[in-house]
């Protein structure tokens, strides 16, 4: 399944449904950051969460920063996602791996709670004009899905159900994505809609299996709401491509170097004869040469 976002509505426009697949983007991040199985799962879930949030922004250049600050061995994470479908991110400890834990069904799952620990989820929405909107909530359990639902309830007062999951096969991730179902703001006081949302979502047994079993995100949505409002959203607005894309560049690296004072630049020249800047989001390396640093000092 190619990476994309699919949008739909149900209950005569009273419920918004958004599904996202980030498998290929996550594979690239896994390769760039040398992620373990555990951190691959956590970063993939955070990709989905940030993109689900960004997808509801009205301005195409709008962006969402999804950050976890906590005391767990993961050492936090940061994801940057755009309304345009571009996503990038990193975790503090990419090599972290913990023993799997057995759930009530006898299946083994990643130990997200121990990895993330206790702390806070911080979300920044930036429309590109004025001050960004920032909100922070306490983490629930580090599974990302419940943490995102908690954020939506407490910070945006929007009743929501969130499914996020992934599936591995041997050493590779074969699917990763998420689904967000929300009662829209004008309808949030309707108890029947909230009950309908809860009832339908209880019928979803395993989101990861549903995601893996199809190459059509709309069919995943229809598993919950088979009676979606097909004509409520145009085809162009309904589907959008997703890709791992970093905004770093050599020009930005040069700009960062120019912010150093002359003493720091001279120290770099004397000790190393050059500078190497590595982007945290994508691990791209930029080499600033001796002559370029000397020109910065002279200017």
The first-to-last residue Cα distance is 51 Å
CATH A-level architecture of the largest domain = 3-Layer(bab) Sandwich
Oligomeric grouping of the chains: single chain
Order of helices and strands: EEHHEEEEEHEEHEEHHHHEEHHEEH
Helix run count: 11
Under CATH at level 1, the class of the largest domain stands as: Alpha Beta
Summing up helix and strand content along with how strands pair, one would put the structural category as alpha+beta
Characterize the main sheet: 6 strands, mixed
User: Roughly what percent helix?
Assistant: 25-40%
Tell me how many strands there are. 15
Name the CATH homologous superfamily of the largest domain.
Hsp33 domain
What's the alpha carbon Rg, rounded to whole Å?
Answer: 21 Å
Average pLDDT rating: 89
In spatial order, strands of the major sheet run: 9-8-3-4-5-13
Number of domains: 2
CATH topology of the largest domain: Hsp33 domain
Descriptive overview:
With 299 residues, the chain is of the alpha+beta class. The strands form four sheets. A six-stranded mixed sheet has the order 9-8-3-4-5-13, with helices on one face. A five-stranded antiparallel sheet has the order 10-11-2-1-12, with helices on both faces. A two-stranded antiparallel sheet has the order 6-7. It has helices at 23-33, 37-54, 112-116, 145-155, 191-202, 207-212, 217-224, 235-238, 250-258, 262-271, 290-298; strands at residues 4-10, 15-21, 63-70, 77-82, 86-91, 101-102, 108-109, 119-126, 133-138, 160-169, 172-183, 239-241, 243-244, 275-278, 285-288. The longest helix has 18 residues, at 37-54. It folds into two domains: 4-244, Hsp33 domain (3-Layer(bab) Sandwich), CATH 3.55.30.10; 250-298, CBS domain Like (Alpha-Beta Complex), CATH 3.90.1280.10.
